Amino acid sequence: MKQIIKTLLLASITCFIAFAILKFPMDATEASIRGLTLWWEKVFPTLLPFFVIAELLLGFGVVKFIGILCEPIMRPIFNVPGVGSFAWVMGMASGYPTGAKISARLREENQITQIEGERLVSFTNASSPLFIFGVISVGFFVDEKLGILLAVCHYLGNALVGICMRFHGRTHEQNTQHSTKQKISIMKALQEMHRTRLNDPRPIGQVLGEAVLNAVKTLVMVGGFIIIFSVITKLLFLIGVTPFLAKGFQSFFHLLSLPIDLALPFLSGLFEITIGGSMISHEATDNLLAQLVVVSFILAFHGFSVQAQVASIIANTDIRFTPYFFARFLHGLFASLLTIILFKPLYLNRQVFDMEEVPVSKGFQQSIWTDFIRVLEQIGPLITFFALGVAIIVLYRRKQHK
Q1: Any stretches that span the bilayer, and where are they (predicted)?
Q2: Is residue 246 part of a domain?
Q3: How far apart are CA 384 and CA 377, in angstroms?
Q4: Are 147 and 93 in contact (CB under 8 A)?
Q5: Segments forming the whole domain that contains residue 33
Q6: Is the distance from CB of 260 to CB of 250 less than 8 angstroms?
Q7: How far apart are CA 218 and CA 84, in angstroms?
Q8: How many domains does the chain have?
Q9: Label partner for 139 (CA 20 to 30 A): which of 151, 295, 310, 320?
Q10: Which of 216, 238, 242 is nearest to 304 (CA)?
Q11: Worst-scoring range by mean pLDDT, 59-63, 250-254, 282-286, 392-396?
C-alpha cells in the first residue's frame, strides 16, 4: 500500500509539472535558459578543475597521504578519518556538491565507513567563496564587506555541524575503536601514498582521461538539476503555490520579529539559492540584519536543487540522505545565530572604521570580484565546450578499444 501511494504521488507531481510547462511554455523556456546559462558560464568552468584534481589526487594516493597526516586532527574533532579533511577543504574551496562527490568516492574506495560517510557529507558541502563574495555580497547587496560576515558564519556554522554530527551513529560503532593518540608520521604517509599508487595499474593517460570523464558526467548531472529546479521554481511562483505557502511563513517570521516581506524570498531560496538571494537583496526593507539572517539560512540549507544533486551523487553508495538533510537545518540554525552575534563586530564596526579612513581600496576590492565574474562569463562557455569535447573523445576511444 505504501509503495502504491508513493507511485501515485510521484506520478501526480510529474503530471502537474508537465501541465504547468504546457500552460506557461514561454516562462518555462526562459527559466530553463537562465539555468542553462548559469551552468555553462559559471558552475561548469568553476567546478571542473576541482573535480578533475580531486580524481587525480585520489588516484595518485595524495589523499591517502593527507589522511594519515590529518587523522590526529579529524578523528577527535569530527570522528571521521583524516581523508575527510580533503573533502572538507575541497568542499569549502569549490562549493557544493564537491564535498558530497569526494565523500562518495571515498566510500566507494572503502576509505570510510557508511556512518563516517554520512558524517562527512553532512558538513563538507558549503558555498564557495566565489559565490558568497562575488554573487551574494557584491552582485546582490553591492557591498563586499558583507562577504566577510557571511563567509565566517557559513564556514564556522559548518564546522559546528561537523562537531555535532560526530555523535551520529555512535551506537553502530560500539565495537569499533579508533585511536586518537596517533602520532603524525610523514614517512608512514609517504609509504601509504606510494602503495596506493602502485595498487592502481592504470597508466597516467588513462587516469587523466577518466578523471575528466567522471568530472564531466557529474557536472552534466548537476546542470540538469539546476535547469529543472529553475523551471520548477518559476512555475510554482506563476501558479501561485509559492505565494500561498509564503503566507504561512509570514506568521512564523512575525514570531521571530523578522519582516514578513522576506517570507516569499525565503521560500524561493529554499528551492534555489540564487533566486532567493537575489529576491532578498532587492526586498525594500531597512532591516539589513534580518536580510542577512535569512540569506545565511538559505546558504546553509543549500536549497532543494543542491540537495537533489547530493542525493543523486550518494545514491550509488550506502550513505543515507536523511542525516545530510537534518544537518542542513542544523547548519541553517547555527549560521543564522552566528550572523546575529557577529553582525556588529564583523560588519558594523568595520563600517565605522572604514568611514574614518580614506576609502582608497573600496573600488579596487569590489572590482576584483566583479572583474573575475565578468571574465568567467566570457571564457566559461569555452571551457565548458572544450571539456565536453574531451569527454566525447575519451568515450569514443574507450569504445574503440572494446
Answers
A1: 7-26, 46-70, 77-100, 120-141, 148-168, 219-246, 258-280, 292-314, 326-347, 379-396
A2: yes
A3: 11
A4: no
A5: 23-170+179-401
A6: yes
A7: 20
A8: 1
A9: 310
A10: 242
A11: 392-396
Residues 141-146: contacts with CB under 8 Å, at least 24 apart: 141/281, 141/291, 144/362, 144/365, 144/366, 144/369, 145/347, 145/350, 145/351, 145/354, 146/292, 146/347
Residue in the structure block whose three cell numbers are 557544493: 96
Domain assignment of residue 140, yes or no: yes
CB 77 within 8 A of CB 119: no
Sign for the pseudo-dihedral over CA of 171, 172, 176, 182: negative
Q: Which three cell numbers stand for residue 134?
A: 562575488
139 with 130: CB under 8 angstroms?
no
- The sign of the torsion formed by the CA atoms of 303, 309, 313, 318 equals positive
Distances (CA, A) of 344 to 146, 280, 355: 11, 20, 15
pTM of the model: 0.82
- Mapping DSSP to helix (H, G, I), strand (E, B) and coil, where does residue 128 land? coil
Return the amino acid letter for 366: Q
* pLDDT digit string, tens, across residues 181-238: 556 667 777 777 777 777 777 788 778 888 888 888 888 888 888 888 889 888 888 8
Q: How many CA atoms lie within 13 Å of 4's alpha carbon, on the beta-carbon side?
A: 1
Length of the chain as a residue count? 402
